[in-house]
Amino acid sequence: MTLSADVVDRVRERLVAEGRMPSAADVARALRDDGVLIGADSLLAESERLYGEMSGAGPLSRLLRDPLVTDVLVTAPDQVWVDRGEGTEQVDVRFPSDDDVRRLAQRLAAACGRRLDDASPYVDARLPDGTRVHAVLAPVAVSGTCLSLRVPRRQAFTLDDLVEAGSLPVDVAPWVRAVVDARLAVLVTGGTGTGKTTWLSTLLGRCDQRERLVVVEDSAELLPDHPHVVRLEARPPNIEGTGQITLRDLVRQSLRMRPDRIVVGEVRGAEIVDLLAALNTGHEGGCATVHANTAADVPARLEALALAAGLDRAAVHAQIAAGLDVVVHLVRDRDGRRRWSSLSVAERVDGFTELVDALAWPDPGASVVRGPGLERLRRRLGEWAPREERTR
Fold first, then answer.
1. Domains and CATH numbers, the chain
2. Residues 6+ apart with CB under 8 A from 161
3. Cα separation, 330 vs 340, whole angstroms
4. Residue 353 CA from chain centroid, whole number
5. Nearest C-alpha neighbor of 330 from the set 371, 380, 364, 377
6. Which residues, in sequence order, are bridge partners of residue 82?
7. What is the pLDDT of residue 126?
């Protein structure tokens, strides 16, 4: 049985009048109060469907509630994919037409306070629950409306959790703990979907409970298990093109907020200049994530961002070498598994910065390889170096 439009409108008005976001149980109650006579199974199904429409996620609500799902991707009305940590897989969710996908995308954008229409055919925003929404409308998206949802982690992980999940070798965990405890400046790098945000949240959860963390993000995603976190979020320009607040603005403001650690969720623009300046002027323990294919590519990636912001090449490499201590690189294997790949230290060679591996894990079936940068890492850690290594 499918409810008529009149019934749906009455139920929606009844629930809106209550002034709060309804649950599926509230929808079922409103249907009963409206005198809808259907069986228990049909009532449950219709309640779930109507709840999905009212909460903004429509047919995707069930997927978003799955604790294993990290991404929900709609590429066509009959092509919905999810990622449960082992690569994308197609699911049996379908939309009647591209118009339905378009309306869902517009509802989600409106819930974020953003505009999505022919004049502004794409949006990148965050729902109140932290879900990241990206949508592109046709004809910019050639095959029809394209919708991508990134689901925030519902819990913070510890390094022990990562070891248990097989994402981090047990003998590397003490080195990662030491890097955080020694307040070294850390970049977490990797490609898209390698778990950089999860890893950065994990490292921040390891920080001393007395430290004040000022977290700057383009879209708030980090959820560190820490008692003292100040979160700043960038803001895009409004319809009139005014009111924008950039990451660079927020990094500058964070310097005046008495931070023990400055954290940038993802560096991808001119904010790199201010972050490097902070790391070189006494702000220890800074952290950030950066997209990079390999750890060796990180200096070139930082150089490109800084040059675009007006910093000359020599200054870029001087500041990277002086301010950056460690790079934690992550990969995603062909089977979809996310894992740690290497721990590298920055060294200056002939005026340029290079990353030298201290520890590397080239393959999940192989042992951890000790690289030429291990001795340099041990020196940087000093008294914080793992005990068994200080006796070598």
1. 1-55 (no CATH), 59-152 (3.30.450.370), 159-390 (3.40.50.300)
2. 202
3. 5
4. 27
5. 364
6. 72, 89
7. 81
Residues of the chain with pLDDT below 70 are: 1-6, 8-9, 11-24, 37-56, 154, 239, 388-392
Query: For position 39, what pLDDT does the model report?
Result: 62
**Which residues, other chains included, contact 257 with Cβ-Cβ below 8 Å and sequence gap of 6+?**
212, 214, 230
* Nearest by Cα to 298 from 272, 261, 280: 272
Q: How many CB atoms lie within 10 A of CB 164?
A: 12
CA angle 302, 303, 307 (to 5 degrees): 120
Q: What is the pLDDT of residues 297-353, one digit of tens each?
A: 999 999 999 999 999 999 999 999 999 999 999 999 888 889 999 999 999 888 899
Helix (H, G, I), strand (E, B) or coil at 214: strand
DSSP run (H or E) holding 90: strand 88-91
Q: How much is the CA Rg of the chain, to the nearest whole Å?
A: 24
Q: In whole angstroms, what is the distance from residue 364 CA to residue 338 CA? A: 10
**pLDDT tens across 130-149, in order?**
788 999 999 999 989 999 99
Q: Note the pTM of the prediction, 2 decimals.
A: 0.78
The strand order across the sheet containing 338-349 reads 229-233, 213-217, 261-264, 287-291, 186-190, 326-332, 338-349, 352-360, 369-370
Residues 42 and 89 sit within 8 Å (Cβ to Cβ): no
Using DSSP, state whether 163 is helix, strand or coil: helix
Task: Tokens 């007395």: give the residue.
Answer: 210
* Predicted pLDDT at 351: 84
| The total number of residues written for the chain in this structure | 392
Place of tokens 């409206």: 34
